[in-house]
Amino acid sequence: MTTDSELKELVRQKYSEIALQDKETNAASCCGAGGCSTEVYNIMSDDYTKLEGYNPDADLGLGCGLPTEFAAIKPGDVVIDLGSGAGNDCFVARSATGPTGKVIGIDFTEAMITKARANAEKLGFNNVEFRLGDIEKMPVTAKVADVVVSNCVLNLVPNKRNVINEIFRVLKSRGHFSISDVVLVGELPQNLKQAAEMYAGCVSGAIQKDEYLALIKEAGFEAITVQKEKPIYIPDDILRNYLSEQEIADFRNSGTGIYSITVFGRKPDCCDPEKGCC
């Protein structure tokens, strides 16, 4: 297909475009990958509007869950949001951590960082910070975060193991994460798996659910729990861009499932010194 660096550049370019789109355009597509569906509903995103701290200017309709709802954020916590976009999850997290806490959003798309900073400025938050950086090598020191959240982002990263190890590094002892992501049960059709647009749309970049959970365990996390799981249905008018009618029928009958899952994991009190937490 393409190299890791080419995939990252594809995502960077696509999400720079998305930063300039309105929510309705993003919500009618797969994680904002393009307004390619005529079916009027959100394919992946959940409704944030009832969560405290929600700000409509920061909601681009790009998520696949509500990780902040499950993240058990406490007043005074330091929270890191991976792939923070226009700041939606950061502002919800800030409502939980309060003025005594701190929220750090990390995104590698300059247009998103610019938009998020403008939103924070309008809200007058001085404890929400947005940093330009790659979540495979976070611009954050070790053992600084109480909680890490992320919404429909790790599936966009070619090397998910690197990101999960970075989450482990930046969390304090007994710190935890709650991450919403897209995973697979069964193999996608080859044309769908190789489609660049579907990679940017969070689908072809997804890995098997069992493999995803295994990477979290291998990184050293404990108390790993799937907090929420829901199936993702891709409409036929999107699939027709990549598959024939027969291939669509075969895909529907294959038993392959595309799911949004929200996963919790906790960093132990003490662990392997090589992982840098003791």
Descriptive tags:
7-stranded mixed beta sheet, Rossmann fold, globular, single chain, alpha/beta, 278 residues
List the helices and strands and how they pair.
Elements: H1 4-18, H2 23-27, H3 67-70, E1 78-82, H4 88-97, E2 102-107, H5 110-123, E3 128-132, E4 145-151, H6 160-170, E5 171-185, H7 190-193, H8 196-200, H9 209-218, E6 222-231, H10 236-239, H11 245-253, E7 257-266
Parallel strand pairs: 1-2, 1-4, 2-3, 4-5
Antiparallel strand pairs: 5-7, 6-7
Q: What does it look like?
A:
The chain is of the alpha/beta class and 278 residues long. It has one domain (4-265): Rossmann fold, CATH 3.40.50.150. 33% of the residues lie in helices and 21% in strands. The protein contains 11 helices and 7 strands. Strands 3-2-1-4-5-7-6 form a 7-stranded mixed β-sheet. The N and C termini lie far apart (40 Å). Residues 28-42 have low confidence and may be disordered.
Q: H/E element string? A: HHHEHEHEEHEHHHEHHE
Q: Helix- and strand-based class?
A: alpha/beta
Helical stretch tally = 11
CATH architecture: 3-Layer(aba) Sandwich
Q: In the CATH hierarchy, what is the class? A: Alpha Beta
Question: Helicity range of the residues?
Answer: 25-40%
Reported by name, the CATH topology is Rossmann fold
Basic shape? globular
Mean of residue pLDDT values: 86
Uncertain runs with pLDDT below 50, 5 residues or more? 28-42
- Please state how the strands of the largest beta sheet are arranged side by side: 3-2-1-4-5-7-6
Q: Outline the biggest β-sheet.
A: 7 strands, mixed
CATH superfamily: Vaccinia Virus protein VP39
Query: What is the number of domains?
Result: 1
Give the total of beta strands: 7
Cα-to-Cα separation, first versus last residue = 40 Å
Q: From the alpha-carbon coordinates, what is the Rg to the nearest angstrom? A: 18 Å
Oligomeric nature of the chains: single chain
Roughly what fraction of the amino acids lie in strands?
15-25%
